[in-house]
Design a protein that fits this description.
Blueprint: H1 2-14, H2 16-37, H3 47-53, H4 60-68, H5 71-101, H6 106-132, H7 137-156, H8 161-187, H9 195-224, H10 226-249
Helix pairs in contact: 1-2, 1-6, 5-8, 5-9, 5-10, 6-8, 7-8, 7-10, 9-10
């Protein structure tokens, strides 16, 4: 939350070079802080873990294949990729859309991103915990893709800054819930010893999507306009909702 807010202010007052220099200094401080305070071992090695560690002769590719052979894991990874891809597409093009389509300046863009960060923090810090007391993870996943679908519909019709901002706030709520639920459901399908590898697979798939998103998004934006992103996102999210609802009935 603080990053976009401070970044927008510094960029507006002192320019891009000062912002980049400040970011490099803060990055160095974060590295030093991690080296000083993060413990080398975050978990104690009990007898069960010690026994499991003796069976680590498999290569990383073999372990990955074994994980993907578990239907629940593969299903959740595909569901995560499909549900998060449209939002990642928008995130990759966020600055371009903000400044070119809605003429949002650096300071206002910082405030906008800070608000998005605050909404995400509230959902992940408080909202999900409260919802899990009343609903299952699978139900929340369906809710998340429906929320994201509604956000993309709103973005499709967005012609003013306010409606666009509202769509992005709604989208980040759906995105946060979907990512948390898919990751949680996938990790529950594997042993504790394989949790790290599974989280790595989740992060890798998201990183791959973030690598491809700028190129795909720019092409769509230039040739079909902003509405095409809203149409694509709503189609994918509502399609995912139908698939998940069908699976829930089985």
């Amino acid at each position: 939350m603080a990053g976009p807010l401070i970044g927008g202010f510094v960029t507006e007052k002192f320019g891009d070079n000062t912002t980049a220099f400040l970011a490099s200094i803060l990055s160095l401080v974060s590295v030093i802080t991690i080296q000083m305070f993060l413990p080398k071992h975050t978990k104690s090695l009990n007898k069960l873990d010690a026994a499991d560690s003796k069976s680590q002769d498999k290569s990383i590719l073999t372990k990955t294949y074994d994980l993907l052979s578990i239907p629940q894991v593969l299903y959740m990874l595909v569901a995560q990729a499909a549900s998060l891809a449209p939002a990642i597409l928008i995130q990759a093009l966020g600055p371009v859309i903000n400044m070119e389509y809605f003429k949002i300046g650096p300071k206002e863009n910082g405030l906008f991103l800070a608000g998005i960060g605050a909404a995400s923090a509230m959902v992940q810090g408080f909202g999900i915990g409260m919802l899990l007391k009343r609903f299952s993870e699978f139900s929340l996943l369906i809710l998340a893709v429906l929320i994201s679908g509604c956000a993309f519909v709103l973005m499709y019709f967005a012609t003013h800054t306010l409606s666009y901002i509202a769509s992005q706030v709604i989208l980040v709520i759906g995105f946060s819930i979907a990512r948390t639920m898919t990751t949680s459901m996938a990790t529950k399908a594997v042993s504790r010893h394989d949790t790290g590898l599974l989280l790595g697979l989740c992060a890798t798939s998201e990183a791959l999507m973030r690598t491809l998103a700028p190129g795909i998004g720019t092409f769509m934006l230039l040739h079909y306009g902003l509405a095409s992103l809203g149409a694509l996102g709503s189609a994918i999210e509502f399609g995912m909702a139908i698939i998940l609802l069908a699976k829930k009935q089985i």
